[in-house]
Amino acid sequence: MKRIWLARAEAVGSAGDAALEHGLPGKRGGPRILIGRREWIALPELGVSPVNAKVDTGALTSSLHAEGVSPFERGGQTWVSFATHNHYGQLIACEALVIRRKRVKSSTGVARERFFIETEVVAGGGLVRRVALSLADRSEMKCPMLIGRSTLSGIFLVDPQSSHLLGGLRDLVTTKTLHPSS
Fold first, then answer.
1. Residues 59, 47: Cα–Cα separation, whole Å
2. What does the alpha-carbon distance between residue 109 and residue 112 come to, in Å, rounded to a whole number?
3. pTM of the model
4. Which of 145, 149, 147 is nearest to 65 (CA)?
């Protein structure tokens, strides 16, 4: 007869504490924010909202779907213009300062040089975070944005069975952006 294992949820100090108590590798740390495999987000500096973002612990960096990516110079710095889509399929023209260019290997194993930008990401409930995003063609993907480990590390814990734990679409649309300075 095949054995079936049952996992029970039990409150612990932190995920790192639980791992160490069971002899597993882990590091001690504070509590984490629980998020699902997909979350509604907004990119207010780019004028893009709402976007359904896929949370991917297998990806190192976060990325945003971008079409017609074109670099240009402004004030001695490299900027990039591109277009992306929101959840409703509206094409939105964007411009952002390039923070770096780097070769990134896609999930298909093809390495390409990508532009990286930094922008503010707002999630349901008013959670705000500055993140680096690579610009990539994600037109064949279900979600136009991917949230990778560099954004998740030390802050989030992912529940792969759930979606939109930070709030529904209505929560994102009606949430005002919270800035650290306010």
1. 25
2. 10
3. 0.78
4. 145
Give pLDDT tens digits for 101-113: 998 877 777 888 9
Token pair for 54: 């896929």
What is the spatial distance between Cα 8 and Cα 161, in angstroms, rounded to a whole number? 15
Tell me if 116 sits within 8 A of 102, measured CB to CB. yes
Smallest CA-to-CA distance from 71 within 8, 105, 22, 116 is with: 116
**Using one digit for the tens of pLDDT, what is the confidence trace for 124-143?**
777 888 999 999 999 888 89
CA distance 136 to 64: 6
Torsion of CA 40, 98, 130, 89, to 10 degrees: -10
DSSP 109-137: S-EEEEEEEEEEEEEGGG-EEEEEEEEE-
Residue ranges of domains in the chain, CATH in brackets? 33-174 (2.40.70.10)
**What are the tokens at 165?**
């734990």
What contacts 108, CB < 8 A, 6 or more positions away?
none
Task: Give 54's strand partners.
Answer: 38, 146
* Residue appearing with tokens 């939105």: 92
